Every structure is written in C-alpha cells, then in structure tokens.
Amino acid sequence: MTVQPSSPTAVASAAVTDPDVAHRTRTRTVQVMDAAGRPAAGAQVTVEQVGHGIAFGCIGFDETERAWRRLTGATPDPAQEALLDRLDELWFGLFDTATLPFYWGTFEPRQGAVRTAALREAAEHYVSRGARVKGHPLVWHTVAPRWLEPYPDDEVLRLLRERVRRDAGEFAGLVDTWDAINEVVIMPVFTKDTNAVTRVAKSVGRVGMVQLAFDEARAANPAATLLLNDFDMSADYEHLVEDCLAAGVRIDALGLQSHMHQGAWGRDKTLDVLERFGRFGLPLHFTETTMLSGELMPKHLDDLNDHRVDVWPSTPDGLDRQAEEMVAHYRTLVADARVQAITYWGLSDHGMWLNAPGGLVFADGTPKPAYDALRGLVRGQWWLAPTRVTTDEQGRVGISGLPGRYVVEVDGTRHEVTLDDDGTDVVVR
Fold it and tell me: According to its UniProt record, which reaction does this protein catalyse (predicted)?
C-alpha cells in the first residue's frame, strides 16, 4: 500500500449524478507498477464494477423448488424449465443477494425429513455466480410444523433450539445471513391459527424468544449476520428493539418489511421509518419490499392476508406507477448510509404472495417497466461499466463510485479493489 500526495489525472467514475445518492460515492487510487517496481506511466487499464457493497436482493424461491423437483426425480417440463432459465437470467441481470425459504413447516414437513439438500443446491447455485445468500427465517410462528403441536412446551422449546442450531450450523459458510426470528411483535398474540411457536412465546415472552433464536444461531455460526425482522413499523417494534438491547441481545441488523399492497409509503413515511429505527445505530435491511402494478388493496384492511382474489391483473396506470414509485423508493433508501440491504419480495408475478401483481416481471417472463427502471439504477446509473483509462505519469488511476467491488485489468491480469470507507491507495503489479 502507498499514499500519493495528489489525485491521479485519470479517473474511472460511475455516473452517480443523483444528488440524493452522490454522497455515498467513494474513491480510491490504484498505482500500477511494472515488473521492475517502477510506476507504469501511460499504461492502458480497464476498470469495471463487479459488485455492489449495498445488497440488492430478491427471493430465490423458484430455484429452490426447481432443486427440490430435481432431487425428488420429478419429470422436468421443458416449457417450465425454459421459463425458469429466463427468470434466472433476469434475476442475475439485476440482483446480487438471494433470500431462500427456510420456513420450518415446509423445510421439515415431517419430523426428521428435512430439505437440506434442495436448499443447499439452491444456495450453491447463487453463490457459484457471485451472489450472496440469506436464510429466512429460523424462528417464526407462521408456517410452523404441525407435527410440533402435540409436544409439551418444554419439548417444543428444546426442538426449536435444536432446529436453529442444526440449520444455522449446517449452512455456515454458505448462508451466513439470517432472519433469526420473524415478526415477534405479533408472535405471542397471533390468533389466525394455532401453532406451537405462538404457544411457547406466550410463556417465554418476546425478548425470551428473540434471545433463544440469537443465542442458538450465534453458537452454531459465530460469523453469521443475524437480523430481527418485522412488518410492524409502529412504536411496538421500537420498544421490542429497546427491550432486546437492554437484555443484552446482540442484534447485527434490523429487518424492516415494506409490503406496499395498499400504496407506496412515499418519501415522508420512508424517512420517518429510517429515523425511528436508525436511532439504534444498527444497520438497516429492508427485507421484504413489494409494490403493485395493478389495483391497490383496500385501505381499511388491517391484515393484508384478508384480501384474497383469484385474478389480480396489472393495469397500464399501475405499471407506470410501480416503475415511478420503485425508483423513488430505492433512491430514498440508498441515500441513507444506514441502509445496507434492500430485498424485493418476488421477481415474477407467478406465485406472488396473495396472487398480487407485485412482480417486476410478468408471469410469462416479460419484464415490466419497473424491472427496466430499477435495473437502470442498480446496473446503470449506480454501476461502473468497463471503462478504458490511461495511467498518469505516476502510474495511477482513480476509481470513483458507490461502495462495492471493482476490477482493474492490466495486460490481461485482473486485480480486485474494494471501494469503502478505507481510502488507502492500492498498488498492483
């Protein structure tokens, strides 16, 4: 490493011109040296971005189901496989972080019959192409296994601890980010169905359930990033965070859900949420974002699950609205340095939660305007495409862009450089 007294004259810069986002730009100087250790003045260098520091994510449920069908010997449908290949191509064309489904009730539908192999295959599919993987969730009262209900509370808690340790440990090194526990605010008072997790939460309490999930996951994978995740953006969630921190729970990041079936939050509400939850000094992950390209859900409904329709199409106005609101929402989030991850909850309309038109892609694999608009930000305006530059008289070239991973290629040799808050200059030979 070396520090130069002045800035290089040659700078490869991502066009981060949005004034709300430009302050997150980072710069770094790379000095190219020849084989004899002399500055390589006038050298031709290619600089390109290969990854964002901010996690731009989407669920990877389709790939998980494909892996499961393959492992169980199901006969592949050529048309379905072609569509999944197309969706996979669109996924990697925009996203870099996959959320995979570890819902206990579907992951282990019969006691001891776990779908570890399918989830591992899906995770490896994403990791092999440079994506990050997150597991969702280790503890949740919804989609809890029915076979758990007859057990007494002490046995439920033992099995719950065992499940968290097993899966957090089994996937360590492959899945190192987890929603450790999901929707705790409502967990002990949930009445939509009976389940063993809600039952024990009533006796253990919210903080006790959070402590259980974090302690067991941390013990199984000390390197994991563990989230407390919730849809409740009220003061109740703030109080839960306060209570957990006071009890000594080490929360790595706060998960904030933003399913906007009843209309976009808008800038004011989003900024309010960022301030209220940002005050804890923890990284913020927007874990579940949805915006509709069709008619909005009625405002009077308190529980989104109460709105059920067989057909819920996109509309011309809805498609335009979704694209416009998507861009505004992502700009607001990326402008806040506390936001480290944004996950969209579904690439395609096929299989979308509540049958809503919330995908970025139609069910047939055709991108919606929202997909193109979001890609124009994430892999366009906020991305440095391969750029040819010439080093200055001291063999230096500067890189400027959003935090992330960049590659400097010299004479066919590629050197990876990270843009972050460490502005120390880098020497490559």
Answer: Endohydrolysis of (1->4)-beta-D-xylosidic linkages in xylans
* Alpha carbons within 13 A on the beta-carbon side of 185: 18
For residue 181, give the 3-state DSSP assignment.
strand
pLDDT tens, position by position, 14-32: 656 678 888 999 999 999 9
When pLDDT is averaged across residues 285-289 and rounded to a whole number, the result is 98
The DSSP output letter for 114 is -
DSSP 222-236: TT-EEEEEES--SHH
Kindly state the tokens that stand for 79.
Answer: 């048309």
Residue 6 in domain: no
- The first and second tokens of residue 377, run together, are 């930000």
Q: In what order do the strands lie in the sheet with 387-390?
A: 387-390, 44-52, 404-410, 413-419
The crossing angle, in degrees rounded to 10, of helices 153-170 and 206-220 is: 40
Q: Which amino acid is at 87?
A: L
Give this prediction's pTM. Answer: 0.94
Give the DSSP letter string of 130-150: T-EEEEE-SB-STT--GGGTT
Angle, CA of 143, 148 and 150, to the nearest 5° = 130
| Radius of gyration of the chain measured on its C-alpha atoms | 23
Do both 300 and 414 map to the same domain? no
List, as one string, the DSSP characters of 315-348.
Answer: -HHHHHHHHHHHHHHHHHHHTSTTEEEEEES-SB
